[in-house]
Amino acid sequence: MDWNVLDQRAEQLVTLVKDGHISDPQRIRWALREAYRDSRQFLDGRPAPYSFWAQSDETALMDLIAQHKVSLKFFDENTEIPRADWFTPENVSSEDTVYSVGLAISRLWTPLAAGVTDAELAEVTQARGAVMTSIREFGAEADAAGQTAAGRRAILEAMSAFQQGDIRTPEAATLPSMPDWMFKVIEGTFQKRIDEAG
Prior knowledge:
- With 198 residues, this protein is an all-alpha fold.
- It folds into two domains: 3-67, no CATH class; 83-197, no CATH class.
- The protein is 63% helix and 0% strand.
- The protein has eight helices and no strands.
- The chain has helices at residues 3-18, 25-43, 55-67, 95-108, 111-114, 121-144, 148-164, 180-197.
- Helix 2 (25-43) packs antiparallel against helix 3.
């Protein structure tokens, strides 16, 4: 991508949020994280101001990130690791495992599951049930690896990061998060197993 295009896209996203043209909280988080990503690539390690990225652009972006409490955690510095390696002793408590599980959850979370299609309620319910089943399978894999507590804690952290928009695939970036009831059902089940495991 042309460096000037990165700068222009970052400026445009900042302006859209600043002027209220993007107002949905989920889309605001997505737009500001994208603007941050593009501007960092444009700066390429240089401090602002640089070239077309003015100090006013940098200040506006960082002020909006602070105003909307946009987290920059799990931002490009983490590596996705294979599912078979999530719950190994050396990986189970790592941010890379949390990041990888979060991406897996994000890939499961389709527009149908998010309830943003014209599908019947029964289809949405079925899609959400499939997501819950898959996440429970992650927990079962942690149990099988002898990492019930640490593994399930990592999954819960990944779920929270997904809910907050900190870990999302581009396809799920602007989708609504899981309904609170759904998150709490999974969280309650997992926390019970963590407590039992000591």
